[in-house]
């Protein structure tokens, strides 16, 4: 039973593995400073975006294209208050600002279902970007902002911290009764409501929690870019990438989006540096093949292989 | 003592009166039947009671408290559970988890996962689905999906259960089992309102029956009274000569 495994043996094994990986990751800046740390930071950023996205959109099936909005709010928070407040507080406020925006947007729009919700959230990103642009042009008379700069090691450690917090949160939600409620909403929302689930509340709160981590990631990442403007901060690619990475990795298990985003980001980086001209072509081909032949993402592939191996074992004995 | 009381309940879809000025009164512990031709407004009335829809006018009281205007989950947590005419099971979830959800979020929230699973297991035994509790709900037969809906509704620990065409599309064996199940639910002290086209079932199980036609109540009474009522025979049951053909 999924629900009762919070303290089971298997989850203990999983958490031991996670702990070891985190400890290894924490030592990376000592042994491999420079580029590996920068690369790992951007991998972590996409992993955070993808895992947060899957936290809400995975079980409920509500396809949110708002990640760029929440990410951007985090970036702007960092740009506005980064120089006056200590960094941990800035990251927290960046997350909270996104959380509040998601509460507001969620309460207004989570009645929309299917494609309408996707289009609205897409529009939200555009709306905020253009509103900020308007504001900067007509009210403050500036274009963009400078952000205080952090060392790449600092960025890396903050990303790692946000990721750990996210992983624990996502795990607890998934294995609580709210995880079950989210799944039931994705399958038969009306039936869930008539079975006592406060569907609006469950959806809005989860949407907001996922936005918190996107905002936090944005406010950390902003310090890498030194200068931002509305179209850098609210780049719609940050909405699409988590969706693609989640599909690539598979959403059935918590590790799916993690490995999906990791491989995806690494692949992108690798192709850009080695085959700059062919990069998009190769990338596109891999994506198409993955969608065609891996309907359940890498997780599905792993599970199929695992099944085949364990079945072979049975045949042998 | 009456557990559910409706006064002047009315619902329009555009210009069409789906439910029009209906009064009803369901007693604690009874099995109350709701019949009528297709489109008579039976399911709409269920939707109004369970708050899937809001009435245009009229009031509904559950155990003396007005429940019109509340949201579905609140109604459920007050003790009104329902099943659906077109089954709405959580298709990709294991059968057990379908029921566990009801135990988690129903009348007694704050239940531990251990208790919720135990309660769900007991209820699956009660409806006869113990052997299939690990498989996804979509792989069940229609009859079993309907029983699963009953188990899920019961898991919320209701005092009033709304059964919407639970017997439709079942074969004779399944029908007999379903009737027996309804009787056992009533023996637990749970009040039942059931919509049904299977006359054998409704006449055997229910103490009182209400007949709707074009959204209006045209008759109410014991099965005997309903079966012999001129109006009901004319609009719904049909002449004896046509009945068996």
How would you describe the overall organization of this protein?
The complex is a heterodimer of chains A (317) and B (245). Chain A is 78% helix and 1% strand. By secondary structure, chain A is mostly helical. Chain A has a single domain, classed as ABC transporter involved in vitamin B12 uptake, BtuC (Orthogonal Bundle), CATH 1.10.3470. Chain A has a two-stranded antiparallel sheet with strand order 1-2. Chain A is globular. Chain B has 2 domains: 2-79 and 161-243, Rossmann fold, CATH 3.40.50.300; 91-157, no CATH class. The termini of chain B are far apart. Chain B has 245 residues and is of the alpha/beta class. In chain B, helix 3 crosses helix 4 (113-127), helix 3 runs parallel beside helix 5 (142-155) and helix 4 packs across helix 5. Chain B has helices at residues 42-49, 72-78, 95-105, 113-127, 142-155, 172-187, 199-205, 223-228, 230-237, 240-243, and strands at residues 2-13, 16-27, 31-35, 57-62, 65-66, 80-82, 160-164, 191-195, 208-213, 216-221. In chain B, the strands form 2 sheets. A 6-stranded mixed sheet of chain B has the order 6-7-8-3-9-10, sandwiched between helices. In chain B, strands 2-1-4-5 form a 4-stranded antiparallel sheet, with helices on one face. Chain B contains 10 helices and 10 strands. Chain A binds chain B through residues 1-4, 6, 177, 180-181, 183-184, 187-188, 190-200, and chain B through 50, 52, 71-73, 75-77, 81-82, 84, 88-93, 96-97, 100-102, 104-107, 109, 113-114, 116-117, 152-153, 155-156.
Span of the ends, CA to CA of chain A: 28 Å
Structural class of chain A: mainly alpha
CATH class of chain A: Mainly Alpha
Query: Topology as H/E string of chain B?
Result: EEEHEEHEHHHEHEHEEHHH
